[in-house]
Specification:
five-stranded mixed beta sheet; D-Maltodextrin-Binding Protein, domain 2; 3 domains; 41% helix; Arc Repressor Mutant, subunit A; single chain
């Protein structure tokens, strides 16, 4: 069955591992951690794979590399193979398995950490590692199988990734009462673009599109940083309604806004701002995974179902 595959030298698990590690690092130098001898070894091993398969696998790009289409496909196959062997080895040795979950920082702090740290959910030989990641990076790493699960704000992921809705939330504008005396005046100041506010890159892309006519005074990495700007610096900001403000909640107006477009300079009968088609509607978190993971690890389906049952609305 595999006679042709092993009829010549040049294919080995070590060479396939080199391809996967170089691709994950983005360059041969980074994969080798500056070790000149290892850099030479990685370069040689990838060249031997290219000779074996008769195709180019990587291309130079500045100081790094990028996969060709064939290189990307071989790296995917290799990663799947190596992960399967690694899971099999851990099972035979009875070692602990760590499930890697990527999500936004606010979701991790509000939902994942309390859930995963609870003693009632701990199990022997089972651990979790969480990473604060943007949706696009979560999608990429699910494809690469360097994440087991991801929590994203979109269900439109590329195949073969699958998603299932967890819970929904609203994005609200929190305005310190020291900035505006009433909620009505705060809303007017926002629509007239006189209200400085903070926006977090953790917000879904649709939010940035809806607010394209509005210029944030500050852009933060995540909702937790935006909340700090609200509480510590007294700046208005957009936050999900599930984030708690504790005893400080009474100090802020919480507004639901529908962004409006600026009026045209000429040819309009009124100078009033026009309602936008992009309205800040209810947003959903979805659990995402690669079905190939379930084939690699028989216990992964149980972990998926556990997350779905504990974090669903």
């Amino acid at each position: 069955m595999f006679a042709r595959l092993f009829a010549q030298s040049g294919l080995s698990l070590d060479r396939l591992r080199a391809l996967v590690e170089v691709g994950a690092a983005g360059s041969i130098a980074r994969a080798a951690a500056g070790d000149v001898v290892k850099q030479s070894q990685y370069s040689r091993q990838i060249k031997e794979l290219e000779d074996f398969f008769g195709t180019t696998l990587i291309e130079r790009e500045g100081k790094g590399i990028r996969f060709t289409n064939n290189g990307r496909e071989l790296a995917r196959i290799s990663r799947f193979l190596l992960l399967g062997l690694s899971n099999f080895q851990r099972g035979c040795l009875g070692e602990e398995h760590t499930y890697r979950i990527g999500a936004g920082a606010a979701f991790i702090q509000t939902f994942l950490l309390p859930l995963l740290a609870g003693s009632q959910h701990t199990e022997a030989r089972l651990a979790y590692a969480v990473e604060a990641l943007a949706d696009d990076l979560i999608e990429q790493r699910l494809h690469e199988l360097t994440l087991d699960f991801g929590v994203v704000t979109t269900s439109a992921l590329t195949r073969p990734l699958q998603t299932k809705k967890l819970l929904s939330w609203n994005l609200r504008l929190f305005v310190p009462k020291i900035l505006q005396p009433t909620a009505k005046k705060a809303l007017r100041a926002f629509y007239e673009r006189r209200l400085p506010f903070v926006l977090a890159t953790e917000a879904p892309r649709v939010i940035f599109d809806a607010l394209s006519d509005y210029r944030p005074a500050l852009i933060c990495n995540n909702f937790l940083e935006a909340r700090s700007a609200l509480l510590d610096q007294g700046m208005a900001c957009f936050l999900p309604d599930y984030l708690e403000l504790g005893s400080r909640a009474r100090d802020f107006f919480v507004l639901a806004v529908s962004p409006r477009r600026k009026p045209k300079a000429h040819g309009t009968a009124t100078n009033a701002a026009q309602p936008s088609r992009s309205v800040l509607q209810r947003i959903s978190y979805s659990l995402a995974w690669n079905p190939r993971l379930l084939r690699l690890n028989a216990q992964a389906e149980r972990r998926r179902d556990f997350l779905l049952s504990c974090v669903s609305a």
